[in-house]
């Protein structure tokens, strides 16, 4: 913990970026729930929830691919401020309309679309800014704090959403979320480092395709993450709700328990990854923790006993979090500073797009009640990339010079 405290106390600009992002993520966790409540109150509200989900997710791919070039062109601080202002105004439009008139039925869908379009900007800009704010030795700790921030702020936001919606109503909760965007804009504006685009030296003028996409370590870890996210997406989006309904006692309580176990594991794993720097090669370390996380999927076969299943979710969370931290540090070390925005944008968008694939892949198996096949597929998707990373490490190992 001392490395985290030292980083937060001695690196003012990083502290401002991290605290503002944490508050904003907390607000984000309440936004969709509040928007869903507004839509549910409309005629045919249940049917319109699907439209709301599409509006909030479909623009992510476009926004993610555009975010990187914007960051590399205009600078990370300026783009983060603009993003916070635009999304804050979009969310604030609903409480504003509630005060001056009535909220149009179409407005929650427009707000969800704006949110989805701009969602990837902080997810790309924050990690891309970290190397500009902390030294290489602090990359792991800073990346761990970012990972923990997303997990913990999300948990707090979801936990607060229910009581706040009951006390304030969805319109006032959205006003509170707009305030969190204002907070992020202010903390980012207070950062002294302008986070301007890096100049491209002649050696770095190679196009993105040749300078980065030929890096086997970067491409290999990204593909491994995409495969793992397919498995984890299937687990969280389909298998966990199905287990809670069909195999585990407690229904909704069982689902909450499983997701809580996964989140607690992610917090523990993220904290451990930042405090402990692996002494082995990063590719080997990532492959090792991914292999252990893959074993957690097998615990799902312990149903209807919820203890091994919850332990599996905890294991997956604990050992998947270091993958994120160490792979992000690896990217920071290998991606040219002038291309960080574009590369983080492309890679993170690719990884964010894969979880629904897992849901589509596994659902037909659960329709027939074939949990065993579903578990085998998820385990293979999580484990085989780890083996591929080890083989990649052997192929890219540089021969040592003799005497």
- Structural class by SSE content: mainly alpha
Task: Quickly name the level 1 CATH class of the largest domain.
Answer: Mainly Alpha
Kindly give the count of domains: 2
Number of helices: 17
Which bin fits the share of residues in helices?
Answer: over 70%
CATH architectural group of the largest domain: Up-down Bundle
As residue ranges, the low-confidence spans are 202-206, 398-403
Assigned CATH superfamily of the largest domain = MFS general substrate transporter like domains
- CATH topology heading of the largest domain: Growth Hormone, Chain: A
H/E topology pattern? HHHHHHHHHHHHHHHHH
Question: What percentage of the residues does DSSP assign to strands (E)?
Answer: under 5%
Tell me, what's the shape? globular
- Count of distinct strands: 0
């Amino acid at each position: 913990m001392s490395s985290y405290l030292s980083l937060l106390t001695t690196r003012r600009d990083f502290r401002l970026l991290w605290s503002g992002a944490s508050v904003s993520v907390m607000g984000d966790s309440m936004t969709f729930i509040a928007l869903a409540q507004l839509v549910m109150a409309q005629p045919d509200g249940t049917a319109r929830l699907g439209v709301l989900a599409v509006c909030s997710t479909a623009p992510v791919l476009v926004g993610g691919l555009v975010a990187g070039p914007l960051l590399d062109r205009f600078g990370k601080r300026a783009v983060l401020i603009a993003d916070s202002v635009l999304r804050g105004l979009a969310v604030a439009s609903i409480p504003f309309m509630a005060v001056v008139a009535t909220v149009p039925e179409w407005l929650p869908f427009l707000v969800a679309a704006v949110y989805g379009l701009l969602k990837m900007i902080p997810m790309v800009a924050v990690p891309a800014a970290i190397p500009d704010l902390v030294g290489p030795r602090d990359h792991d700790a800073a990346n761990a704090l970012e990972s923990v921030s997303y997990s913990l702020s999300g948990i707090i936001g979801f936990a607060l959403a229910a009581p706040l919606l009951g006390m304030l109503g969805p319109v006032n909760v959205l006003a509170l979320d707009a305030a969190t965007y204002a907070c992020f804009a202010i903390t980012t504006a207070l950062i002294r480092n302008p986070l301007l685009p890096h100049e491209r030296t002649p050696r770095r003028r190679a196009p993105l395709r040749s300078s980065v996409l030929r890096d086997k370590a970067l491409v290999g870890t990204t593909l491994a993450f995409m495969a793992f996210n397919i498995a984890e997406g299937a687990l969280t989006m389909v298998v966990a709700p199905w287990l809670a309904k069909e195999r585990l006692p407690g229904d909704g309580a069982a689902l909450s328990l499983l997701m809580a176990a996964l989140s607690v594991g992610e917090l523990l794993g993220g904290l451990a990854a930042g405090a402990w720097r692996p002494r082995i090669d990063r590719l080997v370390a990532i492959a090792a923790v991914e292999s252990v996380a893959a074993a957690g999927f097998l615990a799902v076969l312990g149903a209807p006993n919820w203890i091994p299943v919850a332990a599996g979710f905890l294991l997956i969370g604990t050992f998947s979090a270091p993958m994120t931290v160490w792979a992000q540090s690896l990217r920071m070390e290998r991606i040219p500073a002038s291309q960080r925005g574009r590369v983080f944008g492309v890679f993170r968008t690719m990884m964010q797009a894969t979880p629904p694939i897992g849901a589509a892949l596994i659902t037909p198996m659960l329709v027939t009640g074939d949990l065993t096949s579903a578990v085998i597929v998820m385990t293979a998707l999580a484990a085989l990339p780890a083996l591929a990373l080890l083989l990649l490490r052997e192929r890219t190992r540089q021969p040592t010079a003799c005497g």
